[in-house]
Amino acid sequence: MLFSLATLLPFSALAAGPTVSQGVLLMGFRSSDPSLAGNGQYVVVNIGQAANYRSGTAATITNINTQLGSVFGSEWSARTDLQWGVAGCPTTASGTTFSGDSANTFYVSRSEATQGTPDVSPLSISTPTKRATIASNITNIIGLNIAGGFDDSTAGSNALIGLQSGSTPANNWRSYMGGANFGGNGANATSNQDLAWDTTGIETTPNKTLSLYRFAGATSGSVTGTYLGYLKIESNGNVSFNPVLSYSSWATTNAGGAAADLDSDKNGVANGIQWFTGLTSNPQAVSGTITWPRASGNAAATSVYVQTSTNLTTWTNQTANLATATGSISYSLPTGQAKIFARLLVTP
Predict the structure, then answer these.
(1) What is the mean pLDDT of residues 129-147?
(2) Could you tell me if 123 and 225 are in contact, meaning their C-beta atoms sit under 8 angstroms apart?
(3) Other beta carbons within 10 Å of 69
(4) Is 216 part of a structural domain of the chain?
């Protein structure tokens, strides 16, 4: 399912600053080359409620070509120094939930090398304190009830665009999102936040897509980010959000809503395996190795295991749960056995 933008109000109809409310995600743009147009200026866009991205129903992403062109030049989409990224935190208030997100739940983007395929796994943050620090800093970017931030930006070319520059306002996009580190510099640097994954890819260039992750605000332990889908920007400024395809959505379209362990089209491949791999026939061993792909755009399953059997009755897990991994799954068959069978077991 693909959701695309809507053109919003003309500049003449705007109030003093951009429109913002609790629970939104922001999309920011900046130049990383001091010699090029727009360096030191940041275009920040309200792209709607985080809950709509979580549910896959986001439908209002603004047409921002005019604004990007006026700041970064008409060829902004071809610039390799231009960076864009997405972040948001619905609430940091202890013990509260906003639109289904508990306190310190936050959303953040990650560059994709291949469209629709998350790059790194697992994306995790180890403690509630570290998640709270990140959530608080992202909340400062939005700026509700504090000085600075998106809500105090100069109004842009439509009601959902804010313009920032230099160190003004105090909680601007660059302070928390820009540069090689998520957290930027000073008191908000990466050492304070301690993300347990590579922090250089929160942003990317316009010719690449962005994974969107949700990190739940759990009160204990490590939290692994949930991949929600990817964002893509066209050279005309149109932005689309492409949500992951849940098993239930896939089954409604392809299997009459049947369960994952059934074979609705009688092709020898269970529904859940078709959803997860995109295959309509079982892969064969090549030089003793079997490889199962992951279908682009599908949500991570609850569990994924490679299993083996010598009698097709008793099956043994040969891997850890691979649900949060990325890329194809390969398994090399053991040698020295008269007979062995292998399969992929997927639980949506």
Answers:
(1) 88
(2) yes
(3) 16
(4) yes
